[in-house]
């Protein structure tokens, strides 16, 4: 019996019935609703907002949170499969869901009060309230502890000043989870878009994540009530805990991008005739595609085991770093190789490889650059911090 070229080790057989059902549902959505429009959306630099309601109706926003807050109560592996299938369509679609679920809904659930959970999470799960996550600053990048954005107490309120950069969903968002320096350490606040002094400015001229909204946030004496402060965490462990959740999903997402590229190039090389035979009949093409399948298989096994560790409560941040590093590098290398096998046709958005390759330039950078994750593993191995 022929093997599935995108699942050579039959990893699907290791999934539960519920996990397979989740994957199939999101795969259908990606094939029927995302892939037909995403090339044009990327070329136009437009996030397809018309998909938000459908994404919410499928239960993909906050899917791992308890049902009482609008979530689906799904396990970590199911969330990973959601990310994989969405990114098979486009990194921008997966980023939208990742930010809403892992970077906005998760901190409200994990660090917020019960009043905050009930106020925002059900509407966020329904897609009625969109969030963004404000941590990175123009001068900060990989060093979030150096943030300059600050908050000072003023009676029963806090006054926030500063700016954040490279914020996914920024101009879509109704609320922003903003992390700032205070006299009591780093704290998180829910900043509502209509608070005076708060503005979002969309970043244009991007060559990556073009089907995604990326913004800069500015806070000019923004008065935020104490009721909007996340009360249950202080210090960098707050935002870093959110990033661990999001990075976990990112370990799965690039697998989908790589599968999309391999799927496209398998079909193309069988049809493309050069020197009287299909490109797929050449040894060089087969070796390249075999290498892609090998790396996809290793990434699949890595993320599945990471998901099982997560669901058992045993996942460590360094393990997430290893998987994010490996799987993003795998996917960007495959996308570039597929673009090459497509020849001149590979540079247009009629094909997926160049779009995925460009998107993955962002995915390999955000939420921890490749170098940062390498140094995390280096520290784990040696016990020496080389940052």
Could you explain the architecture of this structure?
The chain is α+β, with helices and mostly antiparallel strands and 387 residues long. The protein folds into 3 domains: 11-125, Acyl-CoA dehydrogenase/oxidase, N-terminal domain (Butyryl-Coa Dehydrogenase, subunit A, domain 1), CATH 1.10.540; 131-228, Butyryl-CoA Dehydrogenase, subunit A, domain 2 (Beta Barrel); 237-382, Butyryl-CoA Dehydrogenase, subunit A, domain 3, CATH 1.20.140. Helices cover 50% and strands 15% of the residues. It is built from 10 helices and 9 strands. The strands form 3 sheets. A 4-stranded antiparallel β-sheet has the order 2-3-7-6, covered by helices on one side. It has a 3-stranded mixed β-sheet with strand order 1-4-5, with helices on one face. A hairpin with a 2-residue loop joins β8 (273-274) and β9 (277-278). The longest helix has 35 residues, at 237-271. The protein is globular. The termini are far apart. The model has no long low-confidence stretch (mean pLDDT 96).
């Amino acid at each position: 019996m022929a093997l599935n070229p995108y699942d050579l080790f039959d990893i699907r057989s290791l999934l539960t019935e519920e996990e397979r059902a989740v994957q199939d549902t999101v795969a259908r959505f990606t094939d029927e609703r995302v892939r037909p429009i995403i090339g044009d959306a990327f070329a136009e630099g437009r996030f397809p907002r018309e998909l938000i309601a459908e994404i919410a109706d499928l239960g993909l926003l906050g899917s791992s949170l308890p049902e009482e807050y609008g979530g689906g109560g799904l396990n970590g592996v199911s969330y990973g499969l959601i990310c994989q299938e969405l990114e098979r369509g486009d990194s921008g679609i997966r980023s939208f869901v990742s930010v809403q679920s892992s970077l906005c809904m998760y901190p409200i659930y994990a660090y917020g009060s019960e009043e905050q959970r009930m106020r925002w999470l059900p509407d966020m799960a329904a897609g009625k309230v969109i969030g963004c996550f404000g941590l990175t600053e123009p001068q900060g990048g990989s060093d979030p502890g150096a943030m300059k954005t600050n908050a000072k107490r003023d009676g029963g309120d806090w006054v926030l000043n500063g700016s954040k950069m490279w914020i996914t969903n920024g101009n879509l968002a109704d609320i922003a989870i903003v992390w700032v320096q205070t006299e009591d350490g780093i704290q998180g606040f829910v900043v509502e878009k209509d608070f005076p002094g708060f503005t979002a400015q969309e970043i244009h001229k991007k060559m990556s994540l073009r089907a995604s909204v990326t913004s800069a946030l500015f806070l000019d004496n923004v008065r935020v009530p104490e009721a909007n402060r996340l009360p249950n965490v202080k210090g960098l462990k707050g935002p870093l805990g959110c990033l661990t959740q999001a990075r976990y999903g990112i370990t799965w997402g690039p697998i989908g991008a790589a599968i999309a590229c391999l799927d496209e190039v398998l079909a193309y090389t069988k049809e493309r005739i050069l020197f009287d035979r299909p490109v797929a009949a050449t040894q060089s093409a087969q070796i390249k595609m075999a290498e892609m399948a090998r790396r996809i298989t290793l990434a699949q096994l890595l993320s599945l085991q990471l998901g099982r560790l997560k669901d058992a409560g045993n996942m460590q941040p360094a393990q997430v770093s290893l998987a994010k590093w490996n799987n993003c590098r795998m996917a960007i290398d495959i996308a570039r190789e597929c673009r090459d096998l497509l020849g001149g046709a590979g540079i247009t958005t009629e094909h997926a490889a160049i779009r995925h390759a460009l998107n993955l330039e962002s995915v390999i950078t955000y939420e921890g650059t490749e170098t940062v994750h390498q140094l995390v593993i280096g520290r784990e191995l040696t016990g020496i911090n080389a940052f």
